[in-house]
């Protein structure tokens, strides 16, 4: 709808006494606004919530990694049927760590449910559902993280964050700052879009109220405002007859009365129509290339979040290797070490004959694995994934500015490398358990949980890669069939 059309509507409103003409103009603008919200803002809202969820998950994993919080052992047993804001009740100082561990774990689950199971459409996000979404999003006051916050969860989170900031781990401090910064930025964008959706629902509710209730009532215009309580009683009685399926909002009825009967009503109507009008679309000659980069970036974020898990697994394998090597300390081993020192020879590489399953040949095969080489390559991968997850690093910035082809290549390369790391870690885990003397096996540290988490991350990231490829193939097929794929 062009500017001239909107100005024409405003002109009609100024010159008409017929309220139905205003309602018709408002209905047309609201339909345009609903289409715009579904087409433009809802996809943006979902993407922003994905970033919000990813940033919070990274923050929560950081607290778990540092041992400040702990996992909820019953998390996977809880089934979520609808959004529910976690507890905000007070707790004592002695309960702080347990309570925040459970609350933030629940918060993470609720965000996951919102992103993956909620419909991001105007019709689905009713006023009642919007209240839940808003309450969940502001569960932590991300724009005002402070130890002086009146919100107990925000205040306690700030206190826990200070434990990381006060340490010497610069990488963790950087990840913490980046997560807080991203959560603040995303929450601002999210609240702006939610306000647009809420404003639409408010005005659409008021329009429906006008059409189904107000139009059938006869008011004395001079007493509508002066005897507002009587007016509201009439409206409420008719509402119970015509709109019993909806909630009754007295404050919105009050807005209608001011817009339709108050002395400043005409100016309020004009302002309302201007507010609900959607800016003109770009000229049709301007085309915007469809991009699926966000799908690829989701896959990379999934892999990047594994850096802590891989690091944990590597440390356990290091302990197992040291334990196994310490047992190789016979008299002849000691003699060989003395001879090497006298001849200034380097310590020989630690080589393990590990067994892999080859999916191509559907058979197991044995290979010699240099533990020092494996360790160095795994540490390099951990550092790279950590850099990807920290938006302030040059690595992350290069990724954000890369083309789709470059981002796809990075995702594919890192998928392959993390899969190889998982394969080698699995083989080493089996090797250490089988080669360690029986009396020392209890001292061996298993990495079953870490391997499962890494595998799940690989599967999810690979799904994103396949999703991207399918989207691109569908786009190419549409082009071949002559279907327009440009967004104008």
Please count the beta strands (DSSP E, at least 2 residues each): 2
Order of helices and strands: HHHHHHHHHHHHHEEHHHH
Helix content: 55-70%
Radius of gyration: 31 Å
* Major β-sheet profile: 2 strands, antiparallel
Distance between the termini: 14 Å
Structural class: mainly alpha
Please state the overall shape, judged from the principal axes of the Cα atoms. elongated
What does the average pLDDT come to?
A: 85
Q: Number of helical runs?
A: 17
Are there runs of 5+ residues with pLDDT below 50, and where? 7-17, 283-288
How large a portion of the residues is in β-strands, by DSSP E? under 5%
Keywords:
2 strands; 2 domains; mainly alpha; 488 residues; elongated; 17 helices; two-stranded antiparallel ribbon
């Amino acid at each position: 709808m062009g500017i001239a059309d909107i100005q024409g509507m405003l002109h009609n409103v100024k010159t008409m006494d017929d309220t139905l003409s205003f309602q018709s103009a408002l209905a047309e603008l609201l339909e345009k606004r609903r289409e715009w919200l579904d087409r433009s803002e809802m996809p943006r809202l979902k993407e922003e919530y994905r970033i919000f969820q990813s940033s919070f998950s990274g923050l929560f994993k950081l607290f778990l990694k540092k041992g400040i919080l702990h996992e909820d052992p019953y998390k996977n047993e809880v089934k979520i049927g609808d959004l529910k804001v976690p507890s905000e009740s007070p707790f004592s100082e002695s309960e702080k760590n347990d309570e925040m561990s459970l609350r933030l774990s629940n918060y993470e689950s609720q965000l996951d449910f919102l992103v993956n199971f909620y419909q991001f459409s105007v019709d689905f996000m009713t006023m009642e559902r919007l209240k839940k979404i808003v309450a969940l999003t502001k569960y932590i006051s991300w724009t005002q993280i402070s130890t002086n916050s009146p919100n107990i969860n925000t205040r306690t989170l700030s206190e826990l964050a200070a434990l990381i900031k006060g340490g010497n781990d610069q990488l963790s401090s950087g990840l913490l700052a980046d997560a807080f910064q991203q959560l603040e930025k995303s929450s601002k964008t999210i609240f702006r879009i939610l306000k647009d959706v809420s404003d639409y629902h408010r005005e659409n509710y008021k329009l429906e109220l006008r059409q189904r209730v107000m139009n059938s009532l006869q008011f004395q215009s001079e007493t509508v405002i002066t005897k507002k309580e009587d007016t509201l009683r009439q409206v409420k009685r008719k509402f119970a007859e015509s709109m019993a399926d909806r909630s009754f909002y007295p404050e919105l009825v009050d807005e209608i009365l001011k817009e339709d009967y108050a002395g400043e009503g005409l100016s309020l109507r004009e302002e309302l129509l201007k507010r609900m009008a959607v800016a003109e679309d770009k000229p049709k000659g301007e085309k915007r290339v469809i991009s699926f980069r966000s799908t690829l970036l989701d896959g990379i974020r999934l892999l990047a979040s594994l850096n802590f898990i891989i690091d944990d697994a590597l440390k356990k394998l290091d302990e197992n290797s040291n334990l196994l090597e310490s047992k190789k300390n016979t008299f002849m081993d000691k003699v060989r070490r003395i001879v090497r020192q006298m001849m200034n020879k380097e310590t020989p590489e630690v080589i393990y004959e590990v067994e892999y399953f080859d999916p191509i040949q559907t058979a197991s095969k044995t290979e010699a694995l240099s533990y020092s080489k494996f360790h160095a390559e795994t540490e390099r991968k951990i550092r790279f994934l950590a850099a990807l997850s920290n938006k302030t690093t040059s690595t992350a910035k290069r990724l954000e500015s890369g083309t789709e082809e470059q981002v796809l290549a990075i995702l594919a390369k890192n998928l392959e490398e993390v899969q190889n790391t998982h394969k080698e870690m699995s083989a080493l885990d089996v090797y250490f358990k089988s080669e360690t003397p029986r009396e020392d096996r209890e001292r061996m540290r298993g990495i079953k949980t870490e391997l499962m988490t890494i595998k799940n991350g690989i599967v999810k990231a690979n799904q994103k890669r396949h999703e991207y490829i399918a989207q691109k193939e569908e786009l190419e097929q549409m082009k071949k069939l002559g279907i327009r794929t440009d967004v104008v």
